[in-house]
Amino acid sequence: MISLTDSQKIGIGLMGFGVFFLFFGMILFFDKALLAIGNIFFVVGLAFVIGLERTFRFFFQKHKMKATSFFLGGVFIVLIGWPIIGVILEFYGFFLLFRGFFPAVVGFIRRIPVLGYLLNLPFISGEV
Q1: Where are the domains of the chain?
Q2: What is the DSSP string of 35-104?
Q3: Which residues cross the membrane (predicted)?
Q4: DSSP-derived secondary structure letter, 110
Q5: Does this model's pTM top 0.70?
Q6: Which SS3 state, helix, strand or coil, does residue 5 take?
């Protein structure tokens, strides 16, 4: 089992709260306050989990500047009060930032019993 420091445990909790508030904010018709709180919790939690320096290095790599600008621009747009446009920009930036991790995530999901079976169906396995 992986041992986590106390700050990483706090970060995981903050990221969990962030995802919860983002999801709940979208369920409640893009509530500005919940989305803003979710964004702040998620970004701060990420900094706690991987460290402040590694967070800056991840977001501000030269080849990820477009993705970072979309993601952080979306967070800013949500904070100033345009939640739908901000969330769309955030999702696009999130996809661009983490698209390198998606094959690993799909490979992990393929090993989960029920989800793996669904991903290995002939009409789905060619797409994913």
Answers
A1: 6-113
A2: HHHHHHHHHHHHHHHH-HHHHHHHHT-GGGHHHHHHHHHHHHHHHHT-HHHHHHHHHHHHHHHHTTTHHH
A3: 12-30, 36-56, 68-85
A4: H
A5: yes
A6: coil
CA atoms within 13 A on the CB side of 101: 6
Q: Which two tokens stand for residue 87?
A: 């969330």
- Tokens (6 digits) for 71: 């993601």
Q: What is the mean pLDDT of residues 4-22?
A: 94
Pull the structure tokens for residue 37. Answer: 């709180």
Predicted confidence (pLDDT) per residue in 24-64, tens digit:
999 999 999 999 999 999 999 999 999 999 999 999 999 99
- Count of C-beta atoms within a 10 Å radius of residue 97: 18
Q: From CA 69, how far away is CA 105, in angstroms rounded?
A: 24
Residue with tokens 């799909």: 106
Q: CA 107, CA 60: separation in Å to the nearest integer? A: 27
Contact 23, 29 (CB under 8 A): no
| Residue the block writes with tokens 């999801």 | 23
